Amino acid sequence: MSSNPFSKTIPFRSGNPIHLLNYISLDEGGAILLDEQALRVFRKIEEPIAVIAVVGSYRRGKSYFANTLLGRHDGFELGSSVNGCTKGIDIWDTPFYNKGKRVVIIDCEGIDDPNQEVPWANKLFILCLAISSTLIYNINGIIGRDDIEKLFLMTKIVSLIQPPNDYQFLPNLVVLLRDFQLDSPPDFVEYFLDRLSKVDYDEITKFFKKFDVYPIPHPGVRQEEMRNMSIIETDKLDPIFVEKIEEAVTNIFEDLPPKYLNASEMSGVFFAEFLERCVEQINDPTNTMLSIPSAYEATINYAVKKAYDTCLELYNEMMDQMSFNGLPIPWNEFEDVHNVAFEFAFNNFIQQIIGSADQIESFHKTFYDKIISSKNQFYMKNSTAMDEYHENWAHKLWKENVAPGLEIENLFVIHNFFYVIILT
Predict the structure, then answer these.
(1) Which family is this protein grouped under (predicted)?
(2) pTM
(3) Is residue 412 part of a domain?
(4) What is the mean pLDDT of the chain?
(5) Contact 22, 100 (CB under 8 A)
(6) Distance between CA atoms of 281 and 294, rounded to whole angstroms?
(7) 154, 159, 290, 318: most buried by Cβ count inside 10 Å?
């Protein structure tokens, strides 16, 4: 892909957009299909993951703002027709590092595309709410009836998600007021909420960890150039537009949290599992709500099973070194090897598991029991080898020092071996 950096203030991110999911129409069953290539991108992430999802009205510069998060004009496909360009959900295929987290940018299909089926639009928005760390909601700067109705719909959609006990499972919410041309109010959050007098905005603010509003003025270019924003040069844009984009992007990354599962940060591999469980629920026609606790539980079970298998294998590999070096070994050395192997395996285990404090304590106990069971197997191997060693040594002593004295011609001959024993 060609490179068209946005500014020096926002780091330029290399990579390409790839499809995360598609939707089968209602005529064909109405299901979300995840792309395996995108899931592999998530599964390669070992650090905590942070997901920024850009959603909102189609043909409002949503995908362009997603590109600015990557420090570029190009990237996610931009369209100049009356139809939306993004279909389904696209992700950037090269997650980048930011303050201890790997960041994935998601560009979501416009939620009010006239070609959409309503159930699909709702499912898309529910999924973005569930999986993002920060949700960027891109709307018209002059808030009209349509925008209020969309935000009212958002409060209703949130009610279709069964939250865990802690409501703060939802992301930070960032509202972008696009093409904002009015005088700046003292506080944009208060201005925005005041415009929502017909919406119970408490239903919006109570669900989200953090709530910010940023005005983005018009780019200040002609209509012809607006159709080619992916190749435009930054110095052709209105400096205030560039400044406001930089301010919004900088603050979004400054406040960006990792994706949590209860109190645990999700790595990419666990996020992929969580995403699959959410989609599985959304695709189930018998489900009326997306149950976050159920998706959490399935992800936790996946994580702990993977941790049990991986870390027990680490323990067994280290204990197996005793066999390679030859058994038996003295029991004090056996305990030393076990202690080193257990500490190494346990430290890896506690880094891999996720869940509540009570669950983690229970996982610790189960893992310890599994280690003891494995240790006992090695104990039996060493014990058997020790018995064989003693038996072979006794047989050798008997053959060399006792058996010859039992031969008929030697029965009454005192051998030096026994003479020494008698004298001592």
Answers:
(1) Belongs to the TRAFAC class dynamin-like GTPase superfamily. GB1/RHD3 GTPase family.
(2) 0.82
(3) no
(4) 85
(5) no
(6) 9
(7) 290
